[in-house]
UniProtKB/TrEMBL annotation:
It is found in: Membrane. The chain crosses the membrane at residues 42-63, 75-100, 112-133, 154-173, 204-224, 349-370, 390-410. It is a multi-pass membrane protein. Residues 244-259 have a biased composition (Basic and acidic residues). Residues 244-268 are annotated as: Disordered. Keywords: G-protein coupled receptor, Membrane, Receptor, Transducer, Transmembrane, Transmembrane helix. CDD domains: 7tm_classA_rhodopsin-like. InterPro entries: GPCR_Rhodpsn, GPCR_Rhodpsn_7TM. One of its GO terms (molecular function) is G protein-coupled receptor activity. It comes from the Eukaryota. This is G-protein coupled receptors family 1 profile domain-containing protein. PROSITE patterns: G_PROTEIN_RECEP_F1_2. GO terms for cellular component: membrane. It comes from Mytilus galloprovincialis.
Length: 434
């Protein structure tokens, strides 16, 4: 009987020790990862600060300060709202995963984070695709269909609906799941993708959709760049042709001036000699009647007026030739200014935004493909590899905070409004302090 009691006690102590050791290993591993993720936590907090500040300024300036918003700037405030939500929700969700890397037991929080993060991200993507199509229709299909205000609102509602449907589906594929580390032989809880066919299909659809969206961003802007390049070449040829025609006209004017100047000079000399002869006649012979005296004075006055008008005509012709020469010298400068105005500033801005979006999301797309291809992708990764993958995985948030910086660098109106806001605030603080 005593042997049985000792045996049961030994089994109980052994199981308790194993359970305690297992819990200790999980907590120790969790604390180790928390310390390792501190640089990422700092980066995510900076993302929140920069994203909120920048996107609030964009919404305020484009939504309330700028009265005359052109056709291409219509989507900017709505894109800024999506970026503002994304710059808050996505970093906070990332912080929840870095602060509970192996003890993420809150399934509802995990699902909500995935849903709201996916909705804001997809909303930004659909808006960028809509903007790319709108720019393509405006520049490459000038005689084709236009995106009217009604269609813009319809596309906005469709983008919101699709984002909600696709993002809401992640409720069934994401959640708190067990995570088993092969080397440590311990199991924790993480926020990730549930195993199953639905998750594989969902991730596959997201991956294919992301590739299609990248194509819808790349192709329209490539066509826009091609159209713009052709237009620039055509404009350059037209300007060169105008310069050639102007030079030919100046050469013709110079030839005419040279051919006309000699007869005019001879006529002037003859007229001057006649004037001298008449003056001598006036001195030699006295004219007693008033009519003949006035007639001679009128003749002399007419001769002076003709000489003066000829001189004025020559001066005008010379000045026009000088102006033509100056115009030729100014042609290259005007050509450069025209070329800079050809590409719309709004198109430039959205091309850069789309390019940054693709760069930020390519690593995330690759990780989604790897997760779909291998169900043990995260389990097989070492601690260092997991740290690097988490940095890369959260890099897509840069897309939400980069847009205000792009507007600041490339939109002069936005830059001017920002300067006015800061100058006004500094001036107000100075007055209050005095």
């Amino acid at each position: 009987m005593c042997d049985i009691d000792l045996f049961l006690t030994f089994i109980f102590i052994n199981l308790t020790a194993k359970k305690f050791l297992k819990m200790y290993d999980v907590e120790d591993w969790n604390n180790y990862l928390i310390r390792a993720f501190i640089p990422l936590d700092i980066l995510l907090i900076l993302f929140i600060i920069i994203g909120v500040t920048g996107n609030v300024l964009v919404i305020y300036v484009y939504g309330f300060k700028m009265k005359n918003i052109n056709d291409g700037q219509y989507f900017i405030p709505y894109l800024a709202v999506a970026d503002l939500l994304g710059s808050v929700i996505c970093p906070l969700f990332g912080l929840s995963m870095t602060l509970m890397p192996m003890t993420y037991e809150y399934d509802a929080l995990c699902k909500l984070g995935w849903v709201f993060g996916s909705v804001t991200t997809l909303m930004s993507i659909f808006l960028l695709v809509t903007i790319a199509i709108q720019r393509y229709l405006k520049i490459c299909r000038r005689k084709g269909p236009r995106m009217t205000l009604r269609w813009k609102k319809i596309l906005m509602m469709c983008a919101l609906l699709f984002s909600a449907v696709i993002g809401g589906t992640s409720v069934f594929t994401k959640g708190s799941i067990p995570f088993h580390h092969l080397n440590r032989n311990v199991t924790g809880q993480i926020c990730g993708t549930k195993a199953g066919t639905l998750s594989v299909v969902y991730d596959g659809v997201l991956g294919v959709g992301a590739i299609i969206c990248c194509g819808l961003l790349i192709v329209p802007y490539c066509l826009i760049a091609r159209k713009t390049h052709k237009y620039l070449i055509k404009e350059t040829q037209c300007e060169l042709q105008k310069q050639t025609e102007t030079r030919n006209k100046i050469t013709e004017n110079q030839t005419k001036e040279h051919s006309i100047s000699t007869p005019e000079q001879s006529d002037l000399e003859v007229k001057a000699s006649k004037l001298k002869t008449r003056e001598n006649q006036t001195i030699r012979y006295s004219v007693s009647t008033l009519d003949t005296e006035m007639q001679s004075e009128n003749d002399i006055t007419l001769q002076d007026n003709e000489e003066l008008s000829n001189n004025i005509a020559l001066d005008r012709e010379n000045s026009s030739m000088r102006n033509n020469r100056n115009n030729i010298n100014e042609q290259p400068h005007k050509l450069r200014q025209t070329n800079r105005r050809i590409i719309s500033q709004v198109t430039k801005i959205f091309m850069i935004i789309s390019f940054i979006f693709i760069i930020c999301y390519i690593p995330k797309i690759i990780i989604i493909i790897l997760e779909t291809a291998s169900t043990t992708f995260w389990e097989n990764a070492t601690d260092f590899e997991r740290l690097v993958l988490m940095f890369v995985h959260q890099g897509y948030i840069l897309n939400n905070i980069a847009n205000p910086l792009i507007y600041t660098f490339f939109d002069e109106k936005f830059k001017t409004e920002i300067k006015n806001i800061f100058c006004h605030s500094i001036f107000s603080k100075t007055i209050e302090s005095n």
